[in-house]
Amino acid sequence: MRSTTVREAAFAVLREQDLLPLFANPGSTEVPLLVDLPPDLPFVLGLHEASVVGMATGWALGRTAVGLAILHTTAGLGNAVGALATARANRAPLVVLVGQQDRRHLAHEPFLAGRLRDLAGSYPVWTTEPARPQDVPGALARAAHEAQTRRGPALVIVPMDDWLADADESREAAAPTRVRRGGAVEAAELDELRRLLATARAPALVAGAGVDDDAGWAALVALAERLRAPVWQESFGARAGFPQDHPLFAGHLPADRRRLRAVLAAFDVVLCVGTAAFRQYPYDDGPLAPAGVKVAVVSDDPDEVHRSAASIALLAPPAAVCAGLAQALEQRDGDLPPRHRPPPAPQPPADGQLLAGHVLTALGERLAPDAIVVEETPSSRPELQARILARNPLGFVSAAMGGLGFGIPAATGFALACPERPVVAVVGDGSALYSIQALWSAVEYGAGALFVVLNNGGYAVMDRLAEQQGGRGPWPQFGHLDVGAVAAGFGCSVRRVAAHAELLEVFDETVPELGARREPLLLDIAVAPDAEFLP
Ligand SMILES: Cc1ncc(C[n+]2csc(CCOP(=O)(O)OP(=O)(O)O)c2C)c(N)n1
Ligand SMILES: [Mg+2]
């Protein structure tokens, strides 16, 4: 009787742990795994590894599940490192299967032998090189658990000859079939926070990416309403954590210390939920919070908790903590804080020249509340946050590590994961190019996302930062670049927009139908660069 191969045993793990589809860019070291793939294992080809990992990240976040990416030895893993760092910062659980040369001659360092273990540095949450081929299936199951518990990429490095080796069915896998994770919080653990909030004169809340799910939003809303406290969104976060059309939404915290202190000065207690205290971008002198402001943190991410500048931090699921606090606290009375009003949207352009603000206002007016919006538009990010309000979990998603090349593949992954939800990526013309080949996958696999390219002809944010330093950068404007033609080259439908009336017409036609789209569309929209950048 033919015995089971490691490959077959591994496929059983992929089915059991629902590590499907296989997002991959394969090479010769993965051929033994992939030839004659069983038809119940769907496969998604990405034409570059940043796109493979970006799509798997969008898929994992969209499905609240573990995604699987398959990469080809040094070149493949090396290409993917930035995307893996983003997956870690965005807390996306991924199993990353990295192919390696044949075990039997690795010692001779043959063509394609990889020095793989440390290539992605400390960005993976876990890495293994199974001691025996027979340990590979168990390693995949454990990697799924590690990825989910630690919320990031877990690497399994597999030499190509392992797949056709006989499995060892007499040994147990070193991984349970199911891991259940507890989410409840004891009342006693809430007591210190409860007292802090109960005795606060003017409490404020900060919402972070770590509460961006249905339970987190509901619990934070309940807590905010109980306290009648304003809720700020963390600056430069991966995701929204609170409905931005709620009367208690107070806007986004500024990203530098000076302006942060000015905001926090109005409060005596600030509770950061699902984020560290405090996420910053440009360095500025002085303390984060003014003297006398007590800062507290709740997060289930040990790193966020451990690095926070706070007097008390609770390592626990934020939804359970907020729900518990809302229940334990008495209803505060008094006036509601004044309602947050974003700066006024720009008037329709008299000279015909569109600004990012025109595009984002028109888009925001038409998007359904359940839209998934992926942001990768550096100089227009503040404008996007002012014009497009997150009204549901995943209503705002961005690469938290700051690396470009996430937007197009992530939106493709979201559209595959959540085909009924409208998915829009708003992407700068420069940003679009880092992982533009994900458009090919979006076409090939029917991902119906809308890609809105704010084509301002260059790296506007870099130009603004250079001006703030009193000079000019050596990088030119894009001039002869044609992003629309590049997208069309991947088979993606493209429409070019330059005038306001045309913009409204295209949005009226496409945005209401987004939930039903099954093919991508890229809008190449000519805009003038914004004159200011103050994140
Ligand atoms: C992988 C990567 N390389 C370089 C950068 C640095 N960077 C940040 S913003 C930016 C320019 C983005 O240009 P574009 O998308 O056109 O946005 P705009 O500034 O014009 O709004 C660059 C190069 C980065 N963040 N990530
Ligand atoms: Mg640009």
C-alpha Rg, in Å? 24 Å
Strand order of the largest sheet: 2-1-3-4-6-5
Q: Report the portion of residues in β strands.
A: 15-25%
Low-confidence runs: none
Question: What coarse outline follows from CA principal-axis ratios?
Answer: globular
Structural class: alpha/beta
Bound molecules: thiamine diphosphate, magnesium ion
Give the fraction of residues assigned to helices: 25-40%
Set down the secondary structure blueprint.
Layout: H1 6-16, E1 22-24, H2 31-34, E2 43-45, H3 49-63, E3 67-72, H4 73-89, E4 94-100, E5 126-128, H5 136-150, E6 153-159, H6 187-198, E7 203-207, H7 214-227, E8 231-233, E9 249-252, H8 257-264, E10 269-273, E11 294-299, H9 302-306, E12 312-315, H10 318-328, H11 356-366, E13 372-376, H12 381-387, E14 397-398, H13 407-417, E15 423-428, H14 429-432, H15 438-444, E16 450-455, H16 460-468, H17 483-489, E17 493-497, H18 500-510, E18 521-526
Parallel strand pairs: 1-2, 1-3, 3-4, 4-6, 5-6, 7-8, 7-10, 8-9, 10-11, 11-12, 13-14, 13-15, 15-16, 16-18, 17-18
Helix pairs in contact: 1-5, 3-4, 3-13, 6-10, 7-10, 11-18, 13-15
The structure holds thiamine diphosphate (TPP) and magnesium ion.
Question: How does this model look, in words?
Answer:
The protein starts with 5 loop residues before the first helix and ends in a 9-residue tail after the last strand. It has helices at residues 6-16, 31-34, 49-63, 73-89, 136-150, 187-198, 214-227, 257-264, 302-306, 318-328, 356-366, 381-387, 407-417, 429-432, 438-444, 460-468, 483-489, 500-510; strands at 22-24, 43-45, 67-72, 94-100, 126-128, 153-159, 203-207, 231-233, 249-252, 269-273, 294-299, 312-315, 372-376, 397-398, 423-428, 450-455, 493-497, 521-526. Helix 11 (356-366) packs parallel to helix 18 (500-510). Strand 13, helix 12 (381-387) and strand 14 (397-398) form a beta-alpha-beta unit. It contains 18 helices and 18 strands. The structure holds thiamine diphosphate and magnesium ion (MG).
